[in-house]
Amino acid sequence: MPELPEVETIARGLETRVAGDTVESVWIGSRPQPLKSPASAIAATLEGKRIARVHRAGKHIVFDLEAQPNQGGRLARRQPRPAASLPTAQWIVHLGMTGRMVVCEPAAEIAKHTHLIAKLASGRELRFIDPRMFGKLSVHSGGFDPGGVEPLEVSEERFVALFRGRKTPIKSALLNQKLLRGVGNIYADEALFRAGIRPRRRAAAITREQLRKLHRAVREVLREAIALGGSSISDYVDADGEEGFFQLQHRVYGREAEPCLVCGTAIRRVVLAGRSSHYCPKCQK
DNA sequence: ATACCGACCTGTCAGC
DNA sequence: TGCTGACAGGTCGGTA
Question: Do residues A105 and A125 lie in contact, with contact meaning Cβ atoms separated by under 8 Å?
Answer without folding.
Answer: yes
